[in-house]
């Protein structure tokens, strides 16, 4: 894990969403900022920033509520993910999207509703995926959980564009 990271800035974003589509759009905007911050951090960290989170021993953890009656989520940037060694889907997706962008691929974070055991959508509960510019979505979180490193290794084999 990287121990000598720059100070972490924290801010809280509170918003009212009238429906899932609006909430996913707001979360997408927040993730866009995290992707760009991760790109800067990864570029400056150089070889200290692993391309694949599994290389650094990062493991998936379930999101923890923020103690309010309303849904809330902490989003970790690259430095905090690597320092703490844990990440949720909303941490993993922006990290991997940043790695893809640094290698010249278009990538963004998209959200899908979580589903209950019967397959019904759970309003207000989302899973973050990486969407490539060609429309394909990749679940790097599930890859990390399953120990599947093939997709990540494929993008890591491409050189970072300077």
Kindly summarize this structure in a few lines:
The protein has 162 residues and is α+β, with helices and mostly antiparallel strands. Helix content is 38%, strand content 17%. It is built from 5 helices and 5 strands, in the order H-E-H-E-H-E-E-E-H-H.
List the helices and strands and how they pair.
Elements: H1 20-45, E1 59-60, H2 78-84, E2 86-87, H3 89-102, E3 107-115, E4 121-132, E5 137-138, H4 140-146, H5 150-156
Parallel strand pairs: 1-2
Antiparallel strand pairs: 3-4, 4-5
Helix pairs in contact: 1-3
In words, what does this structure look like?
- This protein has 162 residues and is α+β, with helices and mostly antiparallel strands.
- It has one domain (20-156).
- It has five helices and five strands.
- It has helices at 20-45, 78-84, 89-102, 140-146, 150-156; strands spanning 59-60, 86-87, 107-115, 121-132, 137-138.
- The strands form two sheets. A three-stranded antiparallel β-sheet has the order 3-4-5. A two-stranded parallel sheet has the order 1-2.
- Strand 1, helix 2 (78-84) and strand 2 form a beta-alpha-beta unit.
- Helix 1 (20-45) packs across helix 3 (89-102).
- The protein starts with 19 loop residues before the first helix and ends in a 6-residue tail after the last helix.
- The model has no long low-confidence stretch (mean pLDDT 85).
């Amino acid at each position: 894990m990287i121990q000598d990271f720059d100070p972490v800035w924290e801010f809280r974003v509170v918003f009212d969403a009238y429906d899932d589509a609006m909430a996913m759009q707001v979360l997408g905007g927040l993730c866009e900022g995290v992707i760009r911050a991760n790109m800067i951090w990864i570029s400056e960290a150089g070889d200290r920033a692993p391309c694949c989170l599994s290389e650094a021993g990062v493991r998936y953890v379930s999101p923890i509520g923020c103690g309010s009656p309303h849904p809330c989520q902490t989003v970790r940037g690259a430095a905090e993910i690597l320092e703490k060694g844990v990440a949720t889907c909303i941490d993993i997706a922006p990290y991997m999207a940043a790695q893809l962008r640094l290698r010249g691929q278009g990538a963004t974070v998209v959200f899908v509703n979580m589903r209950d055991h019967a397959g019904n959508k759970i309003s207000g509960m989302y899973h973050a995926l990486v969407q490539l510019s060609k429309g394909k979505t990749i679940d790097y979180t599930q890859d990390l959980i399953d120990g599947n490193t093939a997709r990540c290794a494929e993008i890591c084999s491409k050189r970072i564009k300077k």
